[in-house]
Design goal:
Length: 467
C-alpha cells in the first residue's frame, strides 16, 4: 500500500489523501483548500498532486466543504468512477455543493470587476451549479456498518464518526491480491465528534486496526465547556430575555443550527425558558434542517425516540424558517425579544453580518457564540472583546452583551482525541496525523507517543509513504 498526502497536511483544510492498494488508486475526501484567494484558487483548480482521470475510486467521509467541496471540479476534470458516501452525506452534498458553486460564482464576479480595471483577463469559477449536479450522479451510498467490496481485495465499511449528520470513519479491509493470507485494516478517522452530542450518536470505536490516518484539529487545545451544557445555555437565554433585546446566534448552517433547534425545543417544552420567537435566517440551514429529519439512523437514542413521539424534534410553534431576502430584512423591524440564528458561525459571511450591523451597537442585544472562531475572523475579534469592529464596509461600536457557550463544537478536543485513539483496538503499527496545523499535530503526536510505541508521524504535503 502507498499513501500520498495531497491536502490537509500541515493545515486543517483541503482534505485529500490518495491510497494505492492492489493496483487501484483510492482518493479519501476531495475538499476545497481555503486560504488567500489566489493561492487557494491555484491549488483547487489544478489538482497538483495527481491527475483526476487517474483515480479509480473516491470515498467521502462527510459533507463539510473542506472535505467534499472540490468533488464537482474532480469530476469535471475527468474523474468518472464512483463516489462512496453515507446516505445523509450525499443528501447534504446536494445542497452544500450547489451553495459552494453559487458562492464561487459570486466571488469570481466581484474579482473579475477588479481584474478588468487592472487590465487582467477574467477567471472562471472552479465549477458551476450544473457541475455540482452532475457530480452527484456518481454517488453510491451505503449505510453505517454495511461492508461493501469496492475493488479487488478491498472492502469498505462506514463507521459513525459522530461529527455531523452522516459523518463516517472510513474502514478498509485489505487482502493482498498476491497473497490471500495477508489481511490488514486501514482506518481514516475523518473528523471525529466529541461524543455526548445533543443529537448525534457517539463516535464508534473501530476494531483491530493496523494503520490509522487520524485528524488532529484540536491537538493541544481543550474546549471551554463539555458537551451537553444546556443549563449554561438556558441561563444565557434567560438573561438575554430580561434585557429585552434580540439574541443573535452566529451558527454554521449544517449541524450547529440543528443542534440549537433541538436544544431550544427541549427547553421550551420543559418550561426552562419562556417561549419566544425563533428565526433561522439561512436558506442553507433551512434545507439542511429538512434533511436531518430523513436520517434517523444517525441520531442518538433520545432524539430517535423523539422523532417518532414529537414528529419533528427540530421544529416548534415559535419557529420561523426564513429563506427569502425580503423575510430576512423584515427581521430588522422586530420589536422585543427574539432569537435569530444565522450563518456563518465565524461571522465572515452570510446574513449574520447584516444582523450584527443593525444590532451590535444596541446594549440590549446579546450576541451568543456557540462554537470556535478562528483567529483573525470577525467572530474572534468580537469574542476577544474588541469594542470597534468592521462590518460590511463600516465600523461599529460593540455595545451588545457578548456571551460564549462553547459546548456545541462538533470537533473532538485534545483529551477527546486521546480517548478516541485509545478506544481503537489493534496494533496500530503506523499512525499519520492530518487535518491540523503543524503545531497542533505535533502536540497531539507527542501526547500519543507517551502511551503508544509504534510510529506516529505528521503528514507532509506531497509526500508518499509505503507500508
Amino acid at each position: 500500500m502507498k499513501l500520498k498526502f495531497c491536502g490537509a497536511a500541515g493545515t486543517t483544510t483541503g482534505s485529500q489523501h490518495l491510497l494505492e492498494i492492489n493496483g487501484k488508486r483510492i482518493l479519501l475526501d476531495c475538499g476545497l483548500y481555503q486560504g488567500s484567494r489566489k493561492h487557494a484558487y491555484d491549488i483547487n483548480c489544478c489538482f497538483p498532486h495527481f491527475d483526476p482521470a487517474s483515480v479509480d475510486i473516491v470515498i467521502l467521509s462527510h459533507a463539510h466543504i473542506d472535505h467534499s467541496g472540490n468533488l464537482p471540479n474532480l469530476t469535471k476534470k475527468g474523474y468518472s468512477g464512483n463516489i462512496y458516501a453515507t446516505h445523509a452525506t450525499r443528501d447534504l452534498c446536494q445542497i452544500m455543493l450547489a451553495d459552494s458553486a453559487r458562492i464561487q460564482e459570486s466571488d469570481i464576479e466581484w474579482l473579475n470587476k477588479h481584474r478588468q480595471r487592472e487590465g487582467l483577463p477574467h477567471v472562471e469559477p472552479l465549477y458551476s451549479e450544473q457541475d455540482a449536479e452532475r457530480c452527484l450522479r456518481q454517488f453510491v451510498t451505503l449505510g453505517y456498518d454495511r461492508p461493501m467490496p469496492i475493488a479487488d481485495g478491498v472492502t469498505l465499511t462506514f463507521i459513525d464518526a459522530g461529527h455531523i449528520l452522516g459523518s463516517a470513519q472510513i474502514l478498509l479491509d485489505v487482502i493482498d491480491h498476491e497473497d490471500s493470507n495477508k489481511h490488514k485494516r486501514f482506518l481514516f478517522s475523518g473528523d471525529v465528534g466529541r461524543g455526548g452530542n445533543e443529537v448525534l450518536r457517539d463516535p464508534v470505536p473501530a476494531q483491530n486496526i493496523d494503520f490509522l490516518l487520524m485528524e488532529s484539529t484540536y491537538g493541544g487545545r481543550e474546549h471551554e465547556a463539555p458537551p451537553g451544557m444546556t443549563d449554561r445555555f438556558a441561563e444565557v437565554i434567560q438573561q438575554a430575555i430580561r434585557s429585552g433585546g434580540k439574541i443573535l446566534i452566529p451558527a454554521f448552517a449544517v449541524e450547529r443550527t440543528q443542534q440549537l433547534l433541538y436544544v431550544l425545543h427541549d427547553l421550551f417544552e420543559s418550561g426552562r425558558i419562556p417561549r419566544i420567537p425563533v428565526f433561522v435566517d439561512s436558506p442553507l440551514a433551512v434545507s439542511a434542517t429538512e434533511i436531518y429529519r430523513l436520517h434517523p439512523d444517525a441520531f442518538n437514542d433520545e432524539v430517535y425516540e423523539d422523532l417518532f413521539q414529537k414528529q419533528n424534534p427540530f421544529g416548534f410553534e415559535q419557529l420561523t424558517l426564513v429563506r427569502s431576502v425580503t423575510g430576512s430584512k423584515a427581521l430588522n423591524d422586530i420589536k422585543g425579544t427574539a432569537i435569530i440564528i444565522a450563518a456563518s458561525g465565524m461571522c465572515e459571511a452570510g446574513r449574520i453580518l447584516h444582523h450584527l450591523k443593525n444590532n451590535i451597537s444596541n446594549p440590549k442585544t446579546t450576541v451568543l457564540f456557540v462554537g470556535y472562531c478562528a483567529d483573525n475572523t470577525l467572530g474572534r475579534r468580537i469574542r476577544d472583546g474588541e469594542r470597534d469592529v468592521p462590518i460590511l464596509g463600516g465600523r461599529y461600536q460593540v455595545r451588545a452583551r457578548i456571551e460564549i457557550v462553547d459546548s456545541f463544537s462538533g470537533h473532538a478536543d485534545h483529551s477527546e482525541l486521546l480517548g478516541y485513539f485509545s478506544r481503537i483496538t489493534g496494533p496500530k503499527t503506523h499512525t499519520w496525523l492530518v487535518h491540523g496545523e503543524t503545531e497542533r499535530s505535533t502536540i497531539l503526536r507527542d501526547a500519543l507517543a507517551e502511551h503508544h510505541h509504534h510510529p506516529i508521524d505528521l503528514a507532509e504535503l506531497g509526500n508518499t509513504v509505503e507500508f
